[in-house]
Structure formats: C-alpha cells, structure tokens
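Most newcomers find our protein records easier to grasp once they have seen one. To make this concrete, we reproduce a full record directly below:

===
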Amino acid sequence: MPGMTARELLTGPREYFVRNDGDDANDGLSNSPAGAFKTPQKPWDLITETIDLGGRVATIKLGGTFTSGISDAGGRDIKPGVVSITAIDTANIPTITASGARNDAVLIGSAEVVVSHLRVGGAGSGLHSCHSGRISVGDGMVYDTCVEYHQFVDNAGWMVSYKPYKIVGGAGAHYFQHTNGYLGVGPVAVTLQGTPHFSTAFAVSTVSGCIEAGGVTFIGAATGHKFWRDIGGDIKTGNAGPNYFPGSLPGVGLSGFYDDKLGMPSGDWAPVYAGLGSGSQAMSNGSWHRVGDLVFINARCTWSGFSGHGGAVIGGLPFAAAVDQTIPIFHSGVSAGSGLQLTTWLSGGSNMLQLVACDPNGGSHGSVQVEASGDILITGCYRAVP
C-alpha cells in the first residue's frame, strides 16, 4: 500500500542487546556500548513496528539494572513467531524495577513471549499478561517487591511457569487472575526467601478465569491470606487442600471453586491432523480444563508420510465451539505462504480447527494446504457450547 514501509522478514534467529551503557540510537545488534540499546522498550518497539518474525525467534538480551521495562499494553501487531526476553549473562541476571507511567516490568498484550533469567519488581506488577497476551516463564526468575502483583493475568491473558523460581519480596499477591485469565504453574519448586508479605493473598482469582497450580513445592514461608477467590474465580491445586499455598492466614472463598472441595472438569484429548487423504501421526496428545464456557487446551500433534491434499484441519476438540472464533498456535513444518500469518479458525458448533493463512495487512485469507510432515503445538482457549 502507498506510504507503508515493508517489514524486514527474518530468515534466522535475531538477538538485540540492551545495556546501561548503551544508546537507543544504536542498532542493538552487538553486545557493546557502541552497539547495544539503552532501554528495554527500544527493541520491543523495533520488533513490533518493523520486523516480520516469519516464524523465527527474536531475543531481547538485557544486562544491568533498569527503572523501566517492556510495555505492550495496546497489544501492537507482532508477526508470527516468538520473542524471548532474557539475560545477556545468566550468572548475573538483570533487574527491572519499573516506575512511572510504564510501571509493570513486563506487560504483554496480544503477543507471545518467553521470559527467563530476570529479577522483576517495582511500582506495578512483575509480569503482566492481558488482552490474550501469552507469557511462558522459564528458568532463573526472581520476583522482588511489587506494589501490585508478581504474576498478573487479566482480560483473557495467559501465563504459565514451568521452571523453578524465587520470591524475595512481597506484593499485593503473588498470583493474581482477573477476568477470564489463565495462570498456570508447575510442577516446580518455588523458594521464598525471608518471609514476604502478600497484602491481599498469595493467590487471588476473581471474575471467572482460573489459577492452576498443582504439584508445586513451596519452600519457605509468607504472611497474609493463603488464597482469595471471588466473583466466579477458580483455583485448581490438584486437590492439595486449603493449606497448600504459603501464608499466615486462612484462605478466603466468597465465590468460585477451590478444588479441594468441588474440583473443575478436566481431561485429555487427542488432536487429529487431517485433510483429504491419510498419513501417520507419531504424536497426538493434549489436555483440557473447563471454566464455565471457557475451555483451555494444550496439545501437540506430529505427523509424517501424509499423502493427502486440500485444506488442513485439526480435529478432536473436547467440546464444540459456541461461536466463530480463532485460536493462535505455535507451529513448524507448516507453511502459510510468503508474507502470510498462520492462525486457526473454529466455526460455531464445530470441534475442528481449520488452519488459515491470513494477510496481516488486511488482505485476503484462505485455507492452508496439508503438508507431508510437520509438528504443531496448540495452546489457547475458546468459548464452548454450554
């Protein structure tokens, strides 16, 4: 379109460096004062405004202590792929103690990121996922004092921690889920240093949505209520009981479910990659849990030797969809076509995901043709028939 600047299409992994002695006028491509950026926000703006990830990984590497973090509150456009936010030196992790207008250390709206080897705290929350943003939390995280929350999901935000981490300061809550969010943890070891205080509760779930934290080993103690649930917020611990979370006061349950008493429906499902033809699936497994009419799914499907043709679909969803909707996916071995973005379409009344190639600039879209082999990781949520 006239007046639009073409994005750079990545053909391999890309690394951007951020250091206290850097400069945002640099290109960010080398780990030196003359090459690195100065602020964590700079590479994020560059990626979201000028880069087409093309299914690749762009990594933002931080070194030093920062008073501002990464903010994507508006959910700006990010092309298909993954952004990793981590340390230049994992033995000397960087600290983000955010203050001012952008007071969350890392705030993600709509994009998909992997965060690891950071110390986060400040005037807002440590990690915040909103508006269908997705944060996967890896190794080496340390949660320092936050005015709000350590891990915060709201408005269909999604966050999962799958590696051990430390808590060294208090907050309003360590886990806080609000308005159809999903916050998953474990099974990992969580170490509390000192005795941090949580002014609302250690785990808070309110206004639908779910905290799922089964199999976590909590090492150390905290003060404040163990949990708080209200307005349909649910907490799932794998039937670990009301004393599962750290705290000096009992949990508070005004509404919603705590699964030592009632439990939440959950189960397994087997995704089926299909088209017009047949093939061999080397791996097909997944899990789901349901909160009201929201179904949260995770699954992986790997196939080879597929001789079919036509539009590719993934069938076997545990419940039929209530309305037309999309579910974002990670993928490899499946091509959407040059300049197109791979997503899925789920028609109301169906339990089958159709793979769709979309023009991110608002052009036409169409079916993705079946591939002879590939690997798809599906993770998201959809609204199901009551």
